[in-house]
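Bit of a strange request maybe. I'm writing a small parser for structure token strings and I need a real example to test against, not something I typed by hand. Could someone generate the tokens for this chain?
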Amino acid sequence: MQYALLIYDDESNPPESWDEATRNAFFADFMALSTEMRAQGILLASQRLATTDSATTVHVRNDRTMVTDGPFAETKEALGGFYLIECPDLDAALAWARRVPSARTGRVEVRPVFASA
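Reply from user aminoacidic:
Good idea to test on real output. This should exercise your parser:
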């Protein structure tokens, strides 16, 4: 089964603002996790996202399309990246989510991906 590990962090305190040693260790932890996921054959995709101030939101109501600069919601924690993994079950996906470095500074939401028909 596929799971999305959705990584949320506080955009007001990005890693780029941290001291160099802390920032380097944080990103090294991400690289080590990604390398291990690839080695175990579970990593399908992963990507860091640009900050929410670069987002554009689209919604359609009554056949009218509205385009707004910025995210849909103003929140302290924002979606900053994701892993798409293939695991046998939710327990396995949660075990990987616990290892995402941002679980220590923000949150990691684990969500099953709908199986395509």
